[in-house]
Amino acid sequence: MEVDSARLERALKAAAQACTNESHGIHGPDSLAWKLGGEALNFLGGGRAALLQLAHPAVAYAIDQHSTTRSDPRGRFQRTFEMVYAMVFGDWPAAEKAARRVHRIHRQVVGSVGEDAGDFAAGDRYAANQVGYLRWVWATLVDTLLVVHDRFGGGLSLDDKRNYLRESTAFAGLFGLSLEDLPGSYEDFKYYFNKMLASGALQITKPAREIAEFL
User: Looking at the 3D structure of the chain, how many domains does it have?
Assistant: First the structure.
């Protein structure tokens, strides 16, 4: 299922209605999203999140065929950082603007997988705004932040993990994902994530290997 313009508008409307303070955007100074997401140690997980994303054949081919990761890695990182920062820490107008920009960019990211990999046969088409791909990328970011804080940040309580997961659904909403598209609890999230890791949906492709070696 694709996140089209109508789905995005519904998600943004819901996000706007959930904002209790427009100047705080989708979270706010009392949120775990700001507390945990603002710590520098999150950069330690950048490589992990990237490799997990590349393990999805559609994501790997989309990055290979449409991204400037190899030709302009610094610029690619800066643009991605700016968009994510605006979504998580920006006021509502900034978050909404970033969400619309990301959706427009993703709308142009279409192509085909060049080999048999995972659930894909060579020649199968992909589109970046597909719910399943967006959900996986979101999940890698959430899981990586939790892992980094467990290993290097003193650990998180189960309640903190549950609350962070709940808050992170607002971030997913900026990509057009609804609550029905996402795991409903932390336990459901871990089940989904581990199921993805164990399934045939993830497989290292030629572009994934090449990009990983470049990074």
Answer: 1
Residue whose pair of structure tokens reads 């996140």 in the numeric block: 3
Digit-coded pLDDT (tens) for 10-27:
999 999 999 999 999 999
Residue 144 in tokens: 């990586």
**DSSP 3-state assignment of 130?**
strand
Domain range for 183 is 5-214
Structure token pair of residue 136: 């996986």
CA distance to 84, 170, 193, 214, per residue, from 136 (Å): 16, 15, 8, 22
Whole-structure pTM value: 0.94
The contacts of residue 186 (CB under 8 Å, 6+ apart) are 158, 161, 162, 165
| ∠ Cα 22 27 31 (to 5°) | 135
